[in-house]
User: Fold these one by one.
Assistant:
Number 1:
Amino acid sequence: MKKSIFTLLLVLITLNVNAQEETKQTELGFNVTGKLGFAKLNQSGMVNLNGSINAGEVLFFYRLESGTSFSVGAGMLDFNANGVSDGESYALKQTYLRIPINLNYSLFILKNQLDSKLSAYGGIGIYANNLFREEIQTIDQTFKNKNQGWNAGLGFNLGLRFGVTKDVNFGIGFESQSDITKMKKNGTERKLEEINTINFSFEFKF
């Protein structure tokens, strides 16, 4: 099933590239993105915790004439949740350092009506993930941990991008990610699942 979907996407992309009337130019730049959403923490010895996501990243991209782009950069992600352990309530805050690598494809839509300023994009990506800092706060005390391990994840994104000026684009989109491996440290295994965010981005071209 996954192979069939992937093959279909490749065929559609190829047909669209061949059907384009305008030739795009190669582009180089960077993208600043803010993300808001929700996720689920899966950790050994605990029930799954649902919490909020607040994240941001800076990616450098290289976009080919075909609309295919490659991007790499770094970002930070905060996961906040409340839970109960042994009858005591606690607040959890985790800060992750993330290193994403993405492969995207974009195409112009309504080119004649909007003078090629509106484009749709979609793609897939992988990321390395480090739990840089963790804070657990109870009524009586606060526990702090650092460098709780590395893992990797996979995600996909889609959205719209609008040209504000020749070298600046504004984008809004949806992204879904999930860790595919678990962090393991001090006998604890954990990973973030169902990371769903709304993304707001500014793209600057050199």
Note: Confidence is low (pLDDT under 50) at residues 17-23.
Number 2:
Amino acid sequence: MEDPTQHEQASPAVRKRVQDSFDRQGLMSHLGARVAHIGPGRVHLVLPVRPEVTQQHGYVHAGATSAIADSAGGYAVLTLFDRTLTVCQLEVYGVQPDGTRKLVANGQQTLIRVNRPAG
């Protein structure tokens, strides 16, 4: 059964905060990643397969996969901005042209909110 919160949208202010932050990330731009969905506690990033993100056998490199998962988890927490300590479940799916999805990586991430120093 599909999770009903999977397609729920975050507020416009939260979506803007996440998208603006994502747009400042040089690595995500370098990888060619984009934001596909921003919901409360859930962010979907897309990484198109291209030669620049593959390893020697033509598969997407685990480093690119883990970078995408790490950023998605961090942004999912940012949608819940008022929480201090958050544990995230990370899932990375490979998606075939016909839409078939296969879980290729998963993990868990613990994040703590840190306020930037003034200045």
Note: Residues 62-78 form the longest helix (17 residues).
Number 3:
Amino acid sequence: MAQQPQIQAVQPQTRYIKGDFVLFRNVERFWLGKPGHTFVGRVERSWTHVDTGKVLYDLTELGSLSYRAGIDPDYMRPLSAADAMHDIDTAPLGEPDTGAMTPAAVAWLRQHLVQDSSTLPVRR
């Protein structure tokens, strides 16, 4: 009987740089069912652990501005600008009811109305 090759899922290695936004999960809090296990953070620096040789990251938690050191990248995921801006990019600008828009889209429109109303499309 021929042995079939085993397939293993390999997580792609992601390198983060200072200023990147990431989603981080505190795995201990997660497995214990404790609240506050996942947060959005900003990468402050990366460094290599002397004993393991693994690259670790220091993050600032955006909700509380707490500094978290030695974060394992296996429990981090990148947050892309496209995801952060999706609600604005897909805002229903043709809707007469601004309640149909997300708060971020409304805030963006208000900011541009105040700054320079000549850049907005002419209302029909």
Note: The longest strand covers residues 38-48.
Number 4:
Amino acid sequence: MSHRSTPPHISPGVPRAHDGSFVVCGEVAKPATFTVPQLRDGWQQHRAEVVFDCATNGPQHHTFEGPLLREVVACAGPAFDPRRRKDRSRFLLAVSGGDSHHTVLSWAEIDADFCDTPILLATRMDGQDLDSAGSQLVVPSDRCGARYVSGITSIWIGTPDGEASLRTS
């Protein structure tokens, strides 16, 4: 069954060297580690041409390619009953990057029964592979790039109360 673990970025410590891989952990049945080549070879690649307003550098134009976030994290088996919408809607995703940048998404943002936002785990940016730099979180609908996380190191999935693993139904 699932187990409870705190988001990896909450514990203080020495940042690990980034090798381009990231972990999916938290309230999941099967924690997993992924590399950029695995993301490119294991899932359908989607393309997003984006423009976002960077507060320091002005408008940024990029083309990203990669699998949908929801398809990749679903492989870890989040600890909810997929038939129950309210159960799914309580879950959060905390995404951490190699540069200590973090963002939080709700499961409802990526779920097809709610917002169905095509958030990507980019494997390529502007035609360049991200193998050594690591995957990038891309939220095409955002006006600014604040939730774009480069060099993803972890994606924690869980509930605010941490009690999903205690429920059975």
Note: The radius of gyration is 16 Å.
